[in-house]
Amino acid sequence: MAEVQTFLGPVPVEELGFTLPHEHLFVGHPELDLNYPHPEWDERAAVERAVRALTRLRGLGVRTLVDLTVPGLGRNVARVAEVARRVPVHLVAATGWYTADVLPAFFHTHGPGLLVGGPDPLEAYFVGDVEDGIAGTGVRAAVLKVVTDRPGITADVGRVLTAAAAAHRRTGVPIMTHTNAPSRNGREQQAFLARLGVAPERVVIGHCGDSEDLGYLRELMDNGSTIGMDRFGMAHVLPDERRVAVVLELLRLGYADRMVLSHDAAVFSRVTPPSWRARHTPDWHFENLSRRILPRLAAGGATPEDLHRMTVVNPARVLAPA
Ligand SMILES: [Zn+2]
After folding, report:
1. Which residues 6+ apart lie within 8 Å of 136 measured at CB?
2. Cα 107 to ligand 1 centre (Å)
3. Ligand 1 geometric centre to CA of 24 (Å)
4. For residues 250 and 238, what is the distance between their CA atoms, to the nearest angstrom?
């Protein structure tokens, strides 16, 4: 029976249940935090807030949440593990690197043909996180996360994608991505990864919910990938009514088995801190799907079977290691 690694060890795939596949607990910047602490960041308070939020979430039926916070976003696995031990939902860890354009200087001296040389450290980091655990915690990553934004596949972004593809081929864990929907660059990502031997079926193209271009979204799914309708509540990018309309139209076109639903929300993010979110995006939190979006999808014609596929069956299929 296939198992998925979580912060507390392996869980059988059929026990994952209702899964939010693209979320964040704590998004920070360790160097900024060390030198210029953010007035709203209080680690102890944030941990307690996460415990309360995830406990409430279980009451709404959610069983599993994937924390796609990788290095570049301030990943701190020990902090999340502390939360995982206290909440009744499975938390899943990710590896990868979050950059829209360039990697830190370390990576410009380490790797084939570079000053210090040696093999590319990224691939060893990703594989180690999946096979041995992250930073001595024993927490094993079950997902690879990569990013393409407006700059496209720059040299360093290409390096991250290449290392993730190699780690995927070796470990079988899926790849989940960040895209910039206006540039429709999920296509470029899908093709780049496919050339490196990653089957599109093993990739979730993220942030597709930011797009209303049905031709673009259908192309990604027709090529085999699952798409992430994963930013419900991010009203500053696209209001929920329009996100719901796109999902309903794609359901009518027969794509229930190719979409997953999530929020890309966070308990704390230094990028858009809690006071900003409270003012501008009041529905951008882990409960938005359960409380507002699933009922609206049902009212718009989504069947219980459609909702079950998008929230339970599809995430489990993708998360099961190949
Ligand atoms: Zn994200």
Report:
1. none
2. 23
3. 7
4. 17
What is the Å distance from ligand 1's center to 68 Cα?
A: 6
Residue 70 falls in which region: left (phi positive, over 0), alpha (psi -120 to 50) or beta: beta
Task: Specify the pairing of strand 3-6 against strand 9-12.
Answer: antiparallel
The strands making up 62-67's β-sheet, listed across from edge to edge, are 259-261, 226-229, 203-205, 175-178, 141-147, 90-96, 62-67, 18-27, 266-269
Here the tokens at position 225 are 């990938």
pLDDT, tens digit, for every residue of 131-159? 999 999 999 999 999 999 999 999 999 99
Q: In 3-state terms, what secondary structure has residue 124?
A: helix
**Neighbour count for residue 266 (Cβ, 10 Å):** 26
pLDDT at 1: 73
Q: Can you tell me which residue has the tokens 């099961």? A: 320
Query: Helix (H, G, I), strand (E, B), or coil: what is residue 227?
Result: strand
Q: What is the pLDDT of residue 154?
A: 98
pLDDT tens digits for range 187-210: 999 999 999 999 999 999 999 999
Q: What is the pLDDT of residues 82-135, one digit of tens each?
A: 999 999 999 999 999 999 999 999 999 999 999 999 999 999 999 999 999 999
- According to DSSP, the residues that pair with 24 across neighbouring strands are 266
CA 115–ligand 1 middle distance (angstroms): 33
In this structure, which residues have their CB less than 5 angstroms from ion ligand 1?
264
Place of tokens 């093709």: 191
